[in-house]
Amino acid sequence: MRKFTIVAGAIAAVAFGGSAFAQSATGPSVSPTYYGTLGYSQLDQSDGDLGAVTGRLGAKFNPYFGVEGEASFGVKDDDFRVAGADGSIKHEYDAAAYVVGTLPINEQFELFARGGYGTTKLKRELSTPVADISQEVDGTSWNYGAGANFYLDQSNGIRADWTRRDFTESDAGEVDIYSVSYVRRF
């Protein structure tokens, strides 16, 4: 809960702090703007490193505050060998919703912080001489992170971000996700 409070405070500071600077840099926004992203995410966790294709849809209600949803599907598994048995960890999918605070630096560059809640599904498989074992693991998490958008023109840009997933189950641990994406504003 302490981490969630820190994340909420950071988002509020980014969303509402420095508004005079951001107002002069980008001007007022009178209607919501929408965006989508598509990119690659690297999931670094204690059990293995996995890769996923990640898509996001978002709405910015003003230059400083918005929401976004994301979904990822695994494309890179992690293989391992234990006591002569071959195994793998697969990222099936994840989905999450976020509140996003943005600090526009100029017309091309902005920083953001986000916090939200999500679900993740992994699959573990182990092939032994006796039997094949398969286990699906579902987990929910409080997520928080930060990143930046760089716009090449009015509609197209590049996004880089980091997100931490703190799983709600006491023994599930954490996962760090590093993403690079193409951004399209509508």
Key terms:
186 residues; mainly beta; eight-stranded antiparallel barrel; 12% helix; elongated
Description:
The protein is 12% helix and 69% strand. The chain contains two helices and nine strands, in the order H-H-E-E-E-E-E-E-E-E-E. It has an eight-stranded antiparallel barrel with strand order 1-2-3-5-6-7-8-9. The longest helix has 15 residues, at 2-16. It is elongated.
**Averaged pLDDT:** 84
What is the rounded Rg? 19 Å
Distance between the termini: 35 Å
Any idea what the shape is? elongated
Strand order within the widest sheet?
Answer: 1-2-3-5-6-7-8-9
Count of DSSP E strands?
9
What amount of the residues lies in strands?
over 45%
Topology:
Layout: H1 2-16, H2 19-26, E1 33-45, E2 48-62, E3 65-76, E4 78-82, E5 85-104, E6 109-127, E7 132-151, E8 156-167, E9 174-185
Antiparallel strand pairs: 1-2, 1-9, 2-3, 3-5, 4-5, 5-6, 6-7, 7-8, 8-9
Briefly summarize what is shown.
By secondary structure, this protein is mainly beta. It has helices at 2-16, 19-26; strands at residues 33-45, 48-62, 65-76, 78-82, 85-104, 109-127, 132-151, 156-167, 174-185. The chain contains two helices and nine strands; from the N terminus they run ααβββββββββ.
